[in-house]
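Weekly modeling sync, notes
Attendees: S.R. (lead), two postdocs, one rotation student

Agenda item 3: backlog of single-chain predictions. S.R. asked that every request posted to the team notebook include the full sequence so nobody has to chase files. The rotation student volunteered to paste the first one in as an example of the format we agreed on. Action items at the bottom.

Example entry:
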Amino acid sequence: MASIKDAFEESFQDTNAIIKYIIFAIPVYYCAHLYVNASNGNLTGFWWMFSVTYLLLFGFLIKCTANVRNGKDCVLPSFNIFALFWAGLKGTIALGPSIAINCWLASLLTGLIANYIPEPNTLIIFKVIIWGLFGSIILTGYLCYAKGFRIADAYNFKVISESCCDILVAVLFMIPQVLLANALLVGPVTYVIWVFFGIPHPIAMYYWSIVLIFNLAMCGHYLAQVDYEAIAAKENAN
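Predicted structure, as returned to the notebook:
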């Protein structure tokens, strides 16, 4: 069974892990700095930096998933940022249509059921279920793509239809575990920074940026485990 504990430990103990987290956190921190210090609401510089950072981090996530899924002896990618940019760009191109179509269908269905379910709490439950199902389709396509970086794999409808519900369940179990891990990582350090420097503070922002990068590695590792259990195991059985 997929273990967030294993994902946490191996992402932390990987070769040069701390150095990589510190380096890859720099663009995240700079994005936050641009947003916080934008003059007169001018966010042009922020959006440019956000686009670059997104490609870098998405490539980082995909590489982490691929490394674990393919049994490599490392979790984190190399320091080659150009390879990460390319992985992020290609991954966006590969998964973009799937994300757009599934988000559109989920939005359409939630809009339709709103006409038939007037009770707000019940409507929220149905919306969460719908978005969860379509989100699991996107995530299953991501896992299929991350294994071999082939765009066609992201649209393997047979695998997606057979495994998306298992992926959804696994992610639902992952969320509270990730929240607990973040409470341990963020809470004590943030409290100390708040006591001595106050919040918000550049030190706190940079530490949160490092934690974000660690989260990407940890979640990428966990998703690779889920991929192996929910997709590869079925393929081997067949």
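Discussion: group reviewed the output briefly. Residues 157-196 form the longest helix (40 residues).
Action items: rotation student to repeat for the remaining queue; S.R. to check formatting next week.
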